[in-house]
Amino acid sequence: MRTAVDLVSGVLDDVLDQVIPQAAAHGSLYIRLWEELRRAVRGGKRFRGRLVVELHDALGGRQRVAAAEVGAAFELLHAGFLVHDDLIDHDTMRRGEPNLAARMAGGAREAGASEPEAQRLAEAAAVLAGDLAISLAHRLVSTADLPADMHSAVQHVLWETVFVSVAGELGDVAAALRLEEPSLGDALRIAAEKTARYSFQAPLRAGAVLAGAAAPLQAEIEAVGLALGKAFQLVDDLLGVFAPESVTGKSALSDLREGKATTLVLHARTLPVWSVVGEHVGRADLDERTFLLLRGELARSTAPAAVATQARDELVRARRLLAGSDALAPAVDVVSAVIAMVGRSLTDAEHYVTAAAKQGAPQPE
User: Fold this and answer.
1) How many structural domains does the chain have?
2) Less packed terminus of the chain by CB within 10 Å, N or C?
3) 80 in any annotated domain
4) Can you point out the beta strands (E) in the chain?
């Protein structure tokens, strides 16, 4: 039997291989846009798509082809959100390489465009490519061969996912601009909306829907997904500042330059370290040397440990929910693997914090 990753990757390859030749009728630039989108889609570990298929299988589902298509839809949704997120955050790197916008800008320069013209094309390309990926995700779900009631339920999951994720992204930007002053609770809510929903809750629920699970079981698996998603985002808040760029694939300066109200920053605001780092958070001209000094100060404060504790609490919550439900017993292996994955990332993040504390420590005269 083909693995979930192979199934989802196969669907993505097939659908993009069908669409890209159609772009030829609309000019070489449109072909380039689709090729760059395919490059963006091919990156990543496919864990959102895997969750759909593997949970469907674990719960005894009989819609494996449709599960692979829905799993591929979540991978397309992820790709579209990342393209838009990079544009919003002014990032030019993704997974250690120039992202879609940066590559489109490079193509424009090669064609003779000025720098402002290249940037304008890059911004337009990012908006349009993200829209295409999200639209193609909806198309995949809409054409899946499923019973009418199941089809309607999965379409609702996808729509609700986009609806809530956009709310989270908007809240994230508003907090970074200090238009709102989020509490730690607000930050976790925004994280749940922005990341937990489309990365964990929705794929798990979609897998349960496709397996024909009853509503109470769907709600239970979604609760586990929420805890996992919160833990994932908390860990990501640490990795975004303390992990090497070779690990995250994007600039470590990004979160601090953008002034993101991450849980790390919100904890730091309540501590003495904020008197040192506060004036630099949100500085678009934050340089590498200053960043390393700030990172060292943050690493030696109690803020990272507070974030790690929150993440660990969410993982404990996910385990308890899983262990406390007989109905979730068939899903134990699938969900436990995800809990372990997030747990390993948390351990890595704590090691990076320790290294940053030593690296940024004041040197003796």
Assistant:
1) 2
2) C
3) yes
4) 93-94, 97-98
Is the predicted pLDDT of residue 170 greater than 60, yes or no? Answer: yes
Residue type, 146: L
Q: Which residues of 110-135 are buried (b: 16+ CB within 10 A; e: fewer)?
A: eeebeeeebbebbeebbeebbebbbe
Measured CA distances, 100 to 128, 313, 326, 359 (Å): 11, 36, 45, 33
Contacts of 126 (CB under 8 A, 6+ apart): 83, 84, 86, 87, 100, 101, 104
Token pair, residue 180, equals 């709102």
From CA 221, how far away is CA 236, in angstroms rounded?
Answer: 22
Q: Which amino acid is at 193?
A: E
Q: How far apart are CA 194 and CA 167, in angstroms?
A: 7
Boundaries of domain holding 40:
1-186
Distances (CA, A) of 164 to 7, 160, 167, 197, 236: 27, 6, 5, 7, 20
- Which residues touch 252 (CB under 8 Å, ≥6 apart)? 240, 241, 242, 243, 244, 245, 291, 295
Section 40-46 average pLDDT = 88
- 261 and 175 within one domain: no
Statement to judge: residues 162 and 74 lie in one domain = yes
Same domain, yes or no: 144 and 55: yes
- Asked whether residue 204 is assigned to any structural domain, the reply reads no
Q: How confident is the model at residue 123 (pLDDT cuts 50, 70, 90)?
A: very high
In this predicted structure, what is the pLDDT of residue 360? 57
Q: The tokens of 10 are what?
A: 């196969």
**177 DSSP 8-state letter:** T
> Which residues lie closer than 8 Å to 107 by C-beta, 6 or more apart?
32
Q: Do 169 and 23 share a structural domain?
A: yes
User: Is the pTM above the cut of 0.90?
Assistant: yes
120 and 247 both lie in a single domain: no
CATH number at residue 290: 1.10.600.10
For residues 161 and 293, state if they share a domain.
no
Residue 340: how many CB atoms within 10 A of its CB?
Answer: 11
